[in-house]
Specification:
single chain, alpha/beta, about 425 residues, 14 strands
Length: about 425
């Protein structure tokens, strides 16, 4: 490949991106203002997150009205590029843009030893934005060659707040009318059903789009990248994890279910799936490191629409859907604060609290998610677990997220706040 061919590709890519943005309704993402301030830093900006979550659009918004070069390495026309060809990319960029303020590399992890190239550009004082959809791969490569020269930013599918803004529903008022509450509940049902991937929110058929996206991630980002030998088993493991959202799993259990010979293979498959953001795991809280490491993990999907597209149990699992939505929002909040950690809690009697929010060394909040809190037996069970965890972890900030019930109650000397999911999601 020569610079003339590359030049045509880069010009085409820029035109395609600008045309795409012109044809779509683009909203200001919640992270935009904060990330714009970080743009001034000379460190390499790494934006990671699931495929099709809007990383390219966000980067374009960050670089609006700036002289920047754009290269999309997910383009099949660049699939034959080797490490030694990256200098031709740089040469072509200078031919097109002379002296760009920024260079924006999209999905650069597709090129072997890309981090060495990026490190060289950093030494030349070039301001870089790099996006990727493989968290662990990027992290490992960056840790090796770019320690102290970069920071990572995360972008997820639309939050419920962003979903409301896209639908031109202004949620900023503290008091809603009955009509507005009814409308916001309808939006919540739609959001949980279809999910927050931008293309789906824009109107794409959610099932067709998300099934295709899911297949692309499995094939391109896992099977081909990691040269997976047992392709069908990998797919079955991924399907099992998506369909068993908000449930606990162990690697040994997965090994037995799929008749695999080695727990190590299961761990690899799980890691491959997790690093693409299809799922994420919440560990059990314990002051003992070994117990945190070996206890079952609770699995969540990065998007409730993806669950609906893949799983047949969506309609029967509304309580777990609520829990998954809360898990995603907590993950999103965690991305803004590196000191935050998310766990679940369980004692030896099986009493469980869905989420333990820890900041630095302190437990900040305990959260139960209960769709039908008005059922007496359910309420008693959830509250009993919450109070037990409160005493053990010395945390008095207790919250129960419900479908519709709100208020505060004092039970056994503990003040417990009840809030509906829609209200918690827009706080």
């Amino acid at each position: 490949m020569n610079t003339k061919e590359i030049k045509q590709i880069l010009i085409d890519q820029r035109e395609e991106l600008e045309t795409f943005l012109e044809d779509k309704k683009i909203i200001k993402r919640e992270v935009l203002e904060n990330y714009t301030n970080l743009l001034k830093s000379s460190l390499i900006k790494i934006i990671i997150g699931p495929r099709r979550s809007g990383k390219s659009v966000l980067s374009f918004q960050l670089l609006k009205n700036k002289n920047f070069a754009y290269v999309n390495f997910d383009d099949e026309r660049l699939s034959t590029l080797e490490t030694q060809d990256l200098n031709l990319i740089l040469q072509t960029i200078y031919e097109i843009h002379k002296k760009p303020e920024f260079i924006f590399f999209d999905e650069i992890q597709n090129i072997s030893k890309w981090e060495l190239f990026v490190n060289r550009l950093k030494r030349q004082k070039i301001n870089l934005i790099v996006t990727g959809s493989n968290a662990k791969l990027l992290s490992a490569e960056l840790a090796t060659h770019l320690t102290g020269r970069h920071f990572s930013l995360e972008l997820f599918p639309f939050s419920f707040r962003e979903y409301l803004i896209f639908n031109e529903f202004l949620y900023f008022e503290k008091i809603f009318s009955t009509k507005e509450i009814a409308l916001i509940k309808k939006y919540l049902n739609d959001y949980l059903h279809f999910g927050g991937f931008p293309e789906v929110v824009q109107g794409e058929n959610y099932k067709r789009y998300l099934v295709a996206l899911y297949s692309t991630i499995l094939t391109k980002d896992i099977i081909l990248r990691h040269k997976v030998k047992y392709i069908n088993v990998l797919k079955e493991v991924a399907n099992y994890l998506i369909c068993n959202f908000a449930n606990k799993i162990t690697f040994n259990k997965l090994k037995n279910i799929f008749s695999l010979k080695s727990v190590h293979t299961v761990q690899n498959y799980f890691s491959f799936i997790e690093e693409t953001y299809l799922i994420f795991a919440v560990k059990k809280f314990s002051y003992k490191f070994k117990e945190r490491l070996t206890a079952p993990r609770k699995i969540y999907s990065i998007d409730t629409g993806l669950i609906n597209a893949i799983s047949t149990k969506f309609s029967q699992e509304i309580g777990h859907i609520y829990e998954n939505a809360v898990a995603i929002e907590l993950l999103r909040k965690k991305s803004f604060n590196e000191a935050t950690e998310i766990y679940y809690w369980e004692d030896v009697y099986g009493r469980e609290v869905d989420f333990v929010v820890k900041q630095d060394l302190k437990i900040k909040q305990l959260i139960q998610v209960c769709y039908n809190i008005e059922n007496y037996d359910t309420k008693q069970r959830e509250i009993k677990s919450l109070i037990k965890a409160s005493n053990e972890l010395k945390c008095s900030n207790l919250l129960v997220i419900t479908d519709d019930y709100e208020g505060e109650e004092k039970i056994k000397g503990k003040k417990i706040k009840f809030v509906s999911l829609w209200k918690w999601l827009i706080e």
